[in-house]
Write a structure and sequence with these properties.
single chain; mainly alpha; MetI-like fold; 14 helices
Length: 305
């Protein structure tokens, strides 16, 4: 187990270094940092003065190592637009996105696991077909379209829920359901396939031959083994939810890091964009590493290289 943790940490650090390097190179190549700081109406003299003042005239690799040194010390730079430390800006917005991701993951697990169990125990029946149809619709439906449809029905027509904001719990319901519904089909299909494999195993046949109740066989003997793949996928899906919250937060005008990313990209606020990519990468690496370790702990038969 210790070797697994060390390997995953080394791989995670390599991934973060690669992502930070590529992000810095791409962002600084696509946008002139001096022009971004000066603004669109600045003169050539002003832009040139800012380029020398901030050191943008230095080679890009020198600027990257300077940024990396600051990042390792917890300094991700200063926002060009807000003139505030980037870390403070991200820290203000991150709780909204984390809460939204937790709500979305909870909804996807609460829907996907029971539907997967139902489809597996009723394999080949109308319930199985309905569950698979639900999964197909969920995978085919774009999240932004589902979000807009939810706003039209529950906010505009019925007036039950607010359509925007992130100040009260009710404002998290529609975006949370939208985010969770997008991941539900994968959770459901994994649970279904895992349950079908487990229910066909020899020890389950033995349990049935002994006369054990079906509920006990499913909940005590089958579910834990069937949910092992779901553990790994749930961590990955949570990372996808955080990274993919840009669309959802923009539609629902939520003050999270997704909406902050959209604002920063539209305003060419390079330090904020770099910090957001790095923070999301850190969260994703931590989640996947924890998922691998948890999977190996739950099932010692799993050999992770």
């Amino acid at each position: 187990m210790l070797n697994l943790i060390i390997k995953r940490c080394v791989v995670g650090l390599a991934v973060l270094l690669t992502i930070s390097t590529l992000t810095f190179a791409l962002v600084n190549s696509a946008v002139d940092p001096a022009q971004a700081v000066a603004g669109q109406g600045a003169s050539f003299a002003d832009v040139d003065a800012i380029r020398k003042l901030y050191g943008f005239d230095r080679p890009i690799y020198e600027r990257y190592f300077t940024w990396l040194e600051g990042a390792l010390q917890g300094d991700l730079g200063e926002s060009y637009r807000q003139r505030r430390p980037v870390l403070d800006i991200v820290a203000e917005r991150l709780p909204v996105t984390l809460l939204l991701g937790c709500i979305g993951l909870t909804i996807s697990l609460a829907l996907g696991i029971p539907l997967g169990i139902l489809a597996a125990t009723k394999h080949g029946s109308i319930w199985d077909s309905l569950a698979l149809g639900f999964a197909v619709v969920g995978q085919a439906m774009p999240s932004f379209w589902f979000a807009l449809l939810s706003i039209v029905i529950f906010s505009v027509m019925l007036g039950w829920l607010p359509a925007s904001g992130s100040d009260t719990w009710s404002q998290f319901i529609l975006p949370g359901v939208t985010l969770g519904y997008f991941s539900t089909p994968m959770i459901m299909r994994l649970t279904r396939s895992g349950m079908i494999d487990v229910l066909d195993s020899d020890y389950i046949r033995t349990a049935r031959a002994k006369g054990l109740p079906t509920s006990k066989i499913i909940l005590r003997h089958s579910l834990l083994n069937a949910l092992l793949p779901v553990v790994s996928v749930a961590a990955v899906q949570f990372g996808y939810m955080l990274g993919g919250s840009v669309v959802i937060e923009t539609i629902f005008a939520m003050r999270g890091v997704g909406y902050l990313a959209w604002e920063s990209i539209s305003q060419a606020d390079i330090p904020v964009v770099q910090a957001l990519v790095l923070v999301m990468a850190v969260v994703y690496v931590v989640l996947t590493t924890a998922s691998d370790i948890l999977t190996a702990w739950l099932d010692p038969r799993v050999k992770l290289n």
